[in-house]
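Open question from group meeting: does this chain pack into something compact, or does most of it stay loose? Before anyone orders reagents, we agreed to write out a predicted structure and look at it together. Recording both the input and the output here so the notebook holds the full record.
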Amino acid sequence: MGQSAEFGKFLKIMRARLSPEDAGSQEYSGARRVPGLRREEVARLSGVSTDYYTRLEQGRNIHPSRAVLDSVARALRLDAGEQAHMMDLLEHCASSAGLAQNPVQKVRPALRQLLDAVGDVPAMVLGRRADVLAGNRMSHLLFTDFASLPAPERNLTRWIILDPLAGALFRDWKTVAAEAVGALRMDVGRHPNDPQTNQLVGELAVHSEHFRQWWAGHRVATRSAGTVRLHHPVVGDLELNFETLSLPDDPDQMLRIYSAKAGSPSSDALTLLNFGDVGAAPVNAPEPSRQDGT
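Structure tokens returned:
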């Protein structure tokens, strides 16, 4: 495995966020000129020399063992997603790598049939960078018709962060947007130097102050299931569960399905969205929010 500057930057940012109290030792307490633990303190917690750990953060060409990496991850209090991202950076982000050539993402016909088969609930296929590769009618009604957008704009993360309608739809917009950025960070670790990803990151950084802050923090996110709270302009408030399923035959694609608890007001709202008059007047629709004060 080659070393990388991104790997070293990630270690440094993770170290800076860790306080002496977080490290679980009063030995490191006292006045600090910089935030977080010092390199020698992380080295001691990891069981390696300060020089060795310093070379890790500097991106020097060394080859740490898995045992050392596990020790560093424990010292930095990395969660499972952050540790996986650290390994991806070390394995894939060698500074000498050229521009990656990724094939065009295609959805298998059988998968499109599956989307139509679950037509009563919103479902979509997400690819690299959270590109929306396909979606059923309910996903279009709940979110937006990604298929009608220009190809570069058919991306869930881009839509969440830049479209004011998404800002009004998600009642916990900042949480949802930050997690989307964290998932994009994970994708960058697995597929470095991808021109389309670089273009997306650049566009988001130009247009969103929130994105710039989250991206600089190197946050990663791997949540594949959970709950999302929405305020839809037609059917009002919904609380939906989502499941994101990996596809073994298409490792860069995921199937995401949204559903509501049976008999709940949210289930009724989905039914209304599916069979009702979607052109009806909005239900308590708020003004679209502007996340960046622009």
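Observations to bring back to the group:
Residues 140 and 146 are 7 Å apart (CA to CA).
The radius of gyration is 22 Å.
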